[in-house]
Structure of 10350_t:CDS:1:
Amino acid sequence: MAEPTLYEETVLQCLRSGGIRTKYYGEGNYGGVDFVVTYERVLFIVLCNNDELPAEPSFVDRMRRDLTEYPRNTVGVLVAPQFSERAKRLASSSPCNIILTEATDIASNIIQYVESLEQNQESDSEEDEQFNFFVITGQPEPFQRQSTQKKSELEWLYKA
């Protein structure tokens, strides 16, 4: 398995600290992919290719296609240092639940979003059901490897 990048470590560490169980499936065609299961919901996290700034709409398009194969309450999270305006427009017009995040500490935002979906599921309001997209912004960490954790800790992050 490839060594995780600092950004992958950061995202997984945030998710672990939020009490969400993670399973890492290695490098995908558009970055590292995590499936995070919380109750009956799947959270699909994609770390976009770090070399592409800003992240292209193709990431959003592929995420949208992937999400159509999962239940409607599945959430897709794309993580990149920056997203193009076209990518944001494409995500906002998607019928799927897509989060674009430029922030490094995304755990609380993701948990808040998943909780809002659970509350909306209990609500009868049609308006609440339309809430399916938002952009998290923040100052991203530099994309460089820093060996600040023990290897055994990193291996634990990647095991379900």
